[in-house]
Write the structure tokens for this entry.
Amino acid sequence: MEGTNVAVGNFFDSKSAVKMELARWALGQEGKLHRQHKNSATRLEHHCARQITENLRAAAANKAARAAAAAGGPAYVRTPPNVVCLMKHVAKLDRANDHWKVTEDVGHSCKGAAPAARGSRRSAFSTGMLSGGVQGVANRAPWMKANEIGTVAEERFNISEGTLSYSQRFRLRKRALDTKYGSKLWQYRTLVSRLELLALADPDSDIYVKFFADEIEVEVEVELLPSDDDKDGGPKGGTKGGEEEEHQHLGSLGCRQLRRELEKRGLESKGRKAELVERLLQADNLPPPKKKRKTKVKSKSKSSSSSRGITTEK
């Protein structure tokens, strides 16, 4: 890779700096992309995207051959992947000087751009790298839309117009705004501490914060189905009330409950609801009516408040 900063012997301050420089170099390779082959604490290795795809294909074929051999098929013989491209870039961590040094550097030997595949990146840059170039724009104009932010990123990183998809532009804008304002989770967790800091900076200011109550009493009506113990002592059909009350009581039950009562009595449980009600009316023992009771439910919230310099209201 002559004429670039990723040549053998060059060093970088961090691993991310190596990735950034490789991404810049990839822009001038006519669509030829590279992928990470190894990424450890002390070694960073990149190969051609075509070679990575070939390695995955060979690994899948060898896995299928091993499974066939285990099932009683022909003996397993490993098939090495074909050499598609010799591109290889290796950077190692020099612990003595605390920097990353390029130890191997071989350019692309393949011809043509890498074929599009599911999950392949359309741009050599990641969202994290692109967001650094548009952070200043997002800080000055946070109201800019995703398409506008993406256009700025393409201009600053010399990416062809229209390369970034809308989903990439949306994630790019979201990451830049999260860096400016903080994520929603961070805003929620640091609300009280930030208000305390504001009160310390201006003690004369009055801050009113309203929190929901820790316990909220709610009255809920719960309909209970009759238990087996209540069936014996419950009212029987024909003992209380007339035929209209019995018909109204059965009409309040659902089809599933009506079919369950018919099955308990050994009667036919198929048909419409009106037919099910008529069959139960003709039976001797009707199901007892449902009971209703009122209960109080306490809802607890994990909200907290601070009284130092802040007036809270509940």
